[in-house]
Write a structure and sequence with these properties.
The structure is a single chain. This protein has two domains: 90 residues, GMP Synthetase, Chain A, domain 3; 50 residues, Membrane-bound Lytic Murein Transglycosylase D, Chain A (Roll), CATH 3.10.350.10. It is built from six helices and six strands; from the N terminus they run βαααββαββααβ. The strands form two sheets. It has a four-stranded mixed β-sheet with strand order 1-4-3-2, with helices on one face. The protein has a two-stranded antiparallel sheet with strand order 5-6. A hairpin with a 4-residue loop joins β2 and β3. The protein is globular, with a radius of gyration of 15 Å.
Length: 157
């Protein structure tokens, strides 16, 4: 099991600004996170969320691929008020034995970053920016729309 750290108010800041982010950071709603997951393209089995403390959510589920696991962690971690995600996910394709997988690699966006800069630093090639965009399509609307503090999944090279 691993714990992943996020910028607590980043998700809210991206869409609503600092005042609403501060108010939302007061309380994590497990029901709101579940609704966010149901609205996504991910279909985890046996989903359960547990609020560990005021800023930590533990996520239990079974998913078919490592990519789905990473997307779920990002979806929960980029929720306003969530600073840490405790991973209790299992990767087990339906009808197959559980997979052994490497932990996902994440990157927190800093001031002045572009997807091209991140691709150069993390993948060794600026032109691979679209791979990062595709790996984060559930949280990014465009390759040009990244925000400081947002956590992105870096695809395995």
């Amino acid at each position: 099991m691993a714990i992943f750290n996020f910028v607590k108010q980043a998700g809210q800041l991206m869409s609503e600004g600092l005042d609403k982010a501060s108010a939302a950071a007061q309380e994590i709603s497990v029901q709101a996170i579940e609704a966010k997951i149901k609205a996504s393209s991910i279909e985890p089995r046996d989903l359960a969320l547990k609020k560990v403390d005021d800023e930590t959510v533990k996520i239990y589920a079974v998913v078919d691929t490592a990519a789905q696991m990473e997307e779920l962690i990002l979806l929960v971690g980029n929720t306003p008020g969530v600073a840490k995600v405790e991973n209790a996910l299992k990767v087990k394709p339906q009808g197959q034995p559980e997979e052994s997988i490497a932990l996902p690699k994440f990157y927190t966006v800093k001031a002045g970053d572009t997807l091209g800069d991140i691709a150069q630093r993390e993948l060794g090639d600026t032109n691979r920016y679209n791979e990062i965009f595709q790996a984060n399509r559930n949280i990014l609307s465009s390759p040009d729309a990244i925000d400081v503090g947002q956590t992105l999944r870096i695809p395995q090279s």
